[in-house]
Each structure stands twice: as C-alpha cells, then as structure tokens.
Amino acid sequence: MLYAVNDIFYSIQGEGYWTGTPAVFVRLAGCNLRCKWCDTDHTKKAELTAEQILMEIKAMVPRGIINLPVVLTGGEPTLQELAPLTTNLKQNGFTIAIESNGTNLKRVPNEVDWITVSPKSDWMYSTRIKCDELKVILTDDINPEDFRLTMYAEHYFLQPLYIDSRPSNLNDVVEYVKENPVWRLSLQVHKMIGIK
After folding, report:
1. 25 labelled catalytic
2. 35-69 residue pLDDT tens
3. Strand (E) or helix (H) holding 152
4. Which of 38, 105, 117, 187 has the fewest Cβ atoms within 10 angstroms?
5. Prior bond of 75 cis (ω within 30°)
6. Structural element, H or E, at residue 166
7. Domain 3-192 sits in CATH 3.40.640.10
8. Domain range list for the chain
9. What whole-number distance in Å separates Cα of residue 89 and Cα of residue 69?
C-alpha cells in the first residue's frame, strides 16, 4: 500500500496541548475541504509505503529516544487507510497522534493515542464527536460554542487566524478566551519562531 505524503519532518509541536514538545510530523497529502487559509501545498507529494515512512522517521530521530510521538496530519489524514501505517509505527515503539478536521473520525485506527480535531465549519457535524483536544481557528463566520455543543474534548483551544505567519485577530481570541474560560489560547509557535 502506498501513502500520498506531503512531508515528513522532526520538530516541536507548535500549537495546542503539546506545544513545545518534540514530535515527528507525517503530513499526508489530500483533503476533503478547501480552506482559504490552508498552509499545506497540496500539489507536493510522494508515494511511500509504511515501511519507507518508518525508515525516514528512524533516520531523523536521535538514537535512544523512545515513545516519541508521530503526528499524522495533512490535509486530512483519514482519507487514507491508516491502519497499516499505525500498526507499523506502534510495533516500533512510537506513540501516535492525529490531527483531523473531524469529518471522517470513524476511520481513525485504534492504535492512535491522541486525537486532535480542528474543525473548519460547524455544518458538517451532525453527531457528537469525542476527541482529546478540540482546536478551533476563530474566523468571522465561526462561533466556537457551536463546536463545543457537538464535540466533547478533554481540552479546548482557540487559535487566531494566521496570515503570513502572523496572528491577524489575536486580540479577538484573547477577549473570547477571557469571556469563555473553558477555552485556552493556542498560538502557532512554530510560525512565530520560524521553524517547520
């Protein structure tokens, strides 16, 4: 089985609950949404097997590090058959996180340890979704409370919209969090400090 892969890199988690912690990111190509603020180049992709992905990950991770998280992101990772990849990663000692838009969570394999849902529009969610972390980008047409009513999460994060690596509506997000303390501020630290 071949996976359409946009990029594989070792860095720190730049947003949400695990901000500042090291992780390997496997950015899978393809998405079922077309968000105007998307920062993924959907034209760039390679076709790799699960074993080739594992070999690339092992080549970039320092020796002796165990239980390092591998974050499956995209695009939308659940559009691809993830079970062979997650099984391979789990058998090799990695913990597995996924970042999804939440439209296809039934396809998340059991081996996944942490689910982040970053929804893009509230009209898509007719059934209650459960995840570890809900991360909402505040835009003019989004009410974060709409998501909180349809999604149960352990942690709720609100994030400003980034334009050219800068938060465009940071003050609005800060005020919203102050008025609705179930939410926490999440910044895209990786963009702010200029790393991948």
Report:
1. yes
2. 666 666 667 789 999 999 999 999 999 887 878 99
3. strand 151-159
4. 38
5. yes
6. strand 166-167
7. no
8. 3-192
9. 10
Catalytically annotated residue among 15, 31, 73, 116: 31
Which is the catalytic residue, given 99, 131, 132, 147? 99
Answer yes or no: 38 catalytic.
yes
Give the pLDDT score at 58: 95
Is 131 in the active site? no
Q: Please give the structure tokens belonging to residue 178.
A: 């102050």
> Cα(103)–Cα(53) distance, rounded to whole angstroms?
25
Catalytic one among 7, 9, 19, 35? 35
Q: Mean pLDDT over residues 97-110, rounded? A: 92
Which of 38, 47, 81, 154 is catalytic? The answer is 38
Our answer to whether residue 133 is catalytic in this structure is: no
From the list 39, 140, 164, 179, the catalytic residue is 39
| Residue in 15, 40, 73, 94 annotated catalytic | 40
- CA-closest candidate to residue 73, choices 121, 19, 30: 30
Evaluate the CA torsion angle 42, 48, 50, 56 in order and state its sign: negative
Q: Is 42 a catalytic residue?
A: no
pLDDT band at 124 (very low <50, low <70, confident <90, very high): low
